[in-house]
């Protein structure tokens, strides 16, 4: 009964005219950046963070959430029609989706992607709504020791599930933790690692790091590459699948939804990992495995369901525990901080309209995305005709204006440009920047809870292992390290991420 009352509050909040407009705007922007290669949700949300200052907190979070799960929808359109994955999670969709399009079944592939995304998004949002309250109640039992151990688990998960080299991922995490130490020590009031630069006394700006490492760096990477343009000559005809298609796609959608819902919650998980995991499962379990790579409908249904389910369930640890499981959720922490909202279980009690309004908006947004993606296919393909060399410089100018307006200082623009160059070097060296952002966000939180736990225990380090919940989280982190070190798991992990690249 409480769930129904809470959802009623959520829909009454989400269905206001203002919030509907921002939900639609987020879904529209998400679809657009999902279609345009190189402009992922991380870069776009980082760019739009300064713009959320002027918005009400609920409207801002609804719009940013719409951008995230909307990008998962949009990326499939160009992946299927043009073999251009607009989003990382759509790379595997292009493998079979584009082959279906070449065989005259583009409409069926788009319908499969849309329906799979819609179903998975709705189910994952229901999971979020169902488990949010119990998990929030559990979170109230967390003390500083438990929160520190949970963050350790989150950072280890980010390393284990990061693509590429484990050593590089560890290095990025450590760099992020060190960057989080810059500024004034909360306990002593002493400036740390600011090098007598007054602008660094409050620490490095979150918006500057996110926009530089993701926005500027990705744009520079894309500008140095030759533009990929392919013309889809076959007209998209029927969207309706055959009965045989339905029998093959329904189990794949169910499996993809399950895989995505689980991987979205895990620390370090995300839409891209869920899509690759679902594709691997479909390839191994399908009775039509020989068709994979040649236009198997399971290769579209499974990954598209998984990436949308993961996008929705990744909000669970953010909203219930205050811990971001991936880089996009770390940006959402930044957006909540901008509006003086402390992410975590207290949001449900202190601001229930925001909490349940955000959840209700996800159902509304999934419906909007169906209406945006299937009927307007032709318009999205036409947008791809805009040359990137004209599009990206305009975005850079917009970014600089946005960064400047945060504190009205040119110093922030210089910091963003510096991190843009650093991020570009990261890409060149094969270092994934997402762990760095997680380390930067979680670092100060870890330090605060670590020191608070020691203060409460009068300097006794055993408090982290004598408290059962804290011990359990540390054991889970240790098990994760041991499991990923096993030869069979290590080989399988490398195989998955080689396929990703």
How many beta strands in the DSSP annotation?
2
Which structural class best describes the helix and strand composition? mainly alpha
Query: Which of globular, elongated, flat, extended, rod-shaped describes the shape?
Result: globular
Computed over alpha carbons, the radius of gyration is 22 Å
Q: Please bin the fraction of helical residues.
A: over 70%
Count of separate DSSP helical elements: 23
N- to C-terminal distance: 47 Å
Instruction: Look at the structure and give the mean pLDDT.
Output: 79
Instruction: Give, in order, the helices and strands.
Output: HHHHHHHHEEHHHHHHHHHHHHHHH
Largest beta sheet: strand ordering:
1-2
**Amount of beta strand:** under 5%
Unreliable sequence segments = 496-501
State the major sheet.
2 strands, antiparallel
Give a description of the structure.
With 501 residues, the chain is mainly alpha-helical. It contains 23 helices and two strands. The termini are far apart. Strand 1 and strand 2 form a beta hairpin.
Describe this structure in a few short sentences.
Helix content is 73%, strand content 1%. It has 501 residues and is mostly helical.
Strands, helices and their partners?
Layout lengths: L1 H13 L2 H19 L5 H8 L8 H26 L8 H12 L3 H34 L4 H17 L5 H15 L2 E2 L6 E2 L13 H18 L19 H23 L5 H15 L12 H16 L1 H7 L5 H12 L7 H5 L1 H22 L3 H7 L4 H20 L2 H20 L4 H23 L6 H4 L1 H18 L1 H14 L1
Antiparallel strand pairs: 1-2
Helix pairs in contact: 1-16, 2-4, 2-16, 3-4, 3-9, 3-14, 4-5, 4-6, 4-12, 4-14, 4-16, 5-6, 5-12, 6-10, 6-12, 6-13, 6-16, 7-8, 7-20, 7-22, 8-20, 9-18, 9-19, 10-11, 10-12, 11-12, 14-20, 18-19
